[in-house]
Write a structure and sequence with these properties.
heterodimer; A: mainly alpha; two-stranded antiparallel sheet; 12 helices; 76% helix; globular; B: mainly alpha; elongated
């Protein structure tokens, strides 16, 4: 069975390559569907496969850049990417990320970086999960009220509508984003991306997990455009991150390419699945993913206060993350296959 | 004159080396960790890749950031072909809701 293992030229470890392909497929599906890189899922997976931690992050970011590019290409063809909005937000993201990274250095100097980052991450995840499910509950309430009043249910209705208040701010320059179909002050996406970039810099994550809901609830993008535009940003920032980590000698390109084989298929499946699942369906699954991430971070935090729980908490967090990746990617794939089968059948019936 | 120059150069070299030793003994800056790829067990392109890593991080980085998008685009186009072959419409999305 030696052929199932490949010697990584830089890290010098033998890795079970089908494991890399499977991991690539899983995160490709989820990334293409939600519009995020998914570093919080890949890094523990790579670690389990035997990657030294020093190489896990760099390799993850390298594969993330390629995978997000594939998803962006697909979403672009569906008209889900607002390139203008993506480029405007990139400015805020980069500046915010650097400010966040500098703040981390400062927290490191005063010796409180670990607890601050973990607790901040937890609060943020709780806030995102609350926002997503409050939004869904509010939308359902609106629908029930419409039905009770005998009115037609508005298919474009949304629950939380903070973006409507933010769009009323008329500080020049005002910009129209064609694909997202929003007109607002240019400062709104710049400030939102600065804030999400700053958070990503502090938390040491790519930012898709924060930027996707921010694009929906603060900037006012439709869910599909938020997913596509976020992926465009992840692709560019991922490439920058890959260059940075590779320069430091922490990227195993061979592993990243093997993962890309799986991710290419997964990213297509995830992106195409957005064709068959309604915007609010995406938000529900995203909310569940955030809750999963919240629990895994909580499990990693427990040993800080109860050291004897280290092993059990570590194993539980890993099982939870990989279980979540498997369950979500299977769900999305099934939905995609069902939708595609119905589409092909409808085409045949027409002809 | 020649011996004076030689003696002077020996003294200066000694001073320079002792300054370095004194700095190291005092702690100094921590040396960055250098990871070296072991290319002895590798052959062909893998060995070339590992050697490139050892010789120049600049070229290694340059090739990596060229190869990642290139491989991504190639795999993306291949997957596109497969999807078209299955019969999925990859140009339109009917659902237009938030």
């Amino acid at each position: 069975m030696d052929w199932l293992y490949v010697l990584m030229p830089i890290a010098g470890v033998k890795i079970f390559w089908p494991g890399l392909v499977i991991l690539g497929v899983g995160v490709g599906v989820i990334g293409g569907f939600f519009g995020m890189g998914g570093a919080w899922m890949v890094t523990p997976g790579l670690n389990i496969l035997g990657f030294p931690m020093a190489f896990a992050i760099g390799t993850d970011i390298a594969h993330m850049a390629g995978k997000s590019l594939i998803s962006t290409m697909r979403h672009g063809k569906f008209g889900n990417v607002d390139y203008k909005l993506g480029l405007v937000m990139l400015v805020g993201t980069v500046v915010g990320f650097e400010v966040g990274a500098q703040m981390i250095m400062w927290l490191e100097r005063i010796g409180i970086v670990g607890p601050v980052v973990r607790w901040m991450y937890l609060v943020l995840l709780a806030l995102i999960a609350w926002m997503v499910f409050a939004d869904i509950a509010k939308k359902r309430r609106k629908e029930r009220e419409a039905i009770a009043a005998g009115r037609e249910v508005d298919k474009l209705a949304t629950g939380i509508e903070w973006h409507k208040s933010l769009h009323k701010i008329r500080i020049p320059p005002m910009v129209h984003f064609h694909t997202a179909q929003i007109t607002c002050t240019a400062w709104l996406p710049i400030l939102v991306s600065f804030f999400t970039g700053w958070l990503a810099g502090i938390l040491g994550i790519g930012g898709g997990l924060i930027r996707m809901p921010a694009l929906i609830y603060l900037v006012g993008c439709p869910t599909h455009v938020a997913v596509g535009t976020d992926l465009f940003e992840v692709a560019i920032s991922g490439l920058y991150g890959a260059a940075s980590y590779t320069w430091k000698g922490r990227t195993e390109l061979v592993a990243a390419i093997i993962m890309l084989v799986g991710a290419a298929v997964g990213a297509q499946v995830g992106s195409v699945a957005t064709k068959y699942i309604k915007g609010y369906g995406i938000r529900v699954v995203f909310g569940l993913a955030v809750i999963g991430c919240f629990i895994s971070v909580l499990l990693k935090l427990i040993p800080t206060y109860v050291p004897s729980f280290y092993h059990i908490a570590d194993v539980s967090a890993t099982i939870l993350i990989l279980g979540l990746v498997a369950a979500m990617s299977i769900y999305i794939t099934v939905k995609m296959v069902q939708g595609a089968a119905a589409e092909v059948a409808a085409k045949k019936a027409k002809s | 004159m020649g011996s004076l120059v030689r003696r002077l150069s020996i003294v200066l070299t000694g001073l320079w080396l002792s300054a370095g030793s004194a700095f190291a003994a005092g702690g100094g800056d921590a040396a960055p960790i250098v990871i070296v790829a072991d290319s002895r067990k590798l052959t062909g392109i893998m060995a070339w890749w590992a050697n490139l890593y050892n010789e120049s991080h600049f070229y290694f980085t340059l090739l990596t950031i060229i190869l990642i998008p290139l491989v991504g685009v190639i795999f993306g186009l291949l997957a596109d072909l497969v999807m078209h072959f299955i019969g999925i419409d990859l140009e339109h999305r009917d659902l237009a809701e938030h």
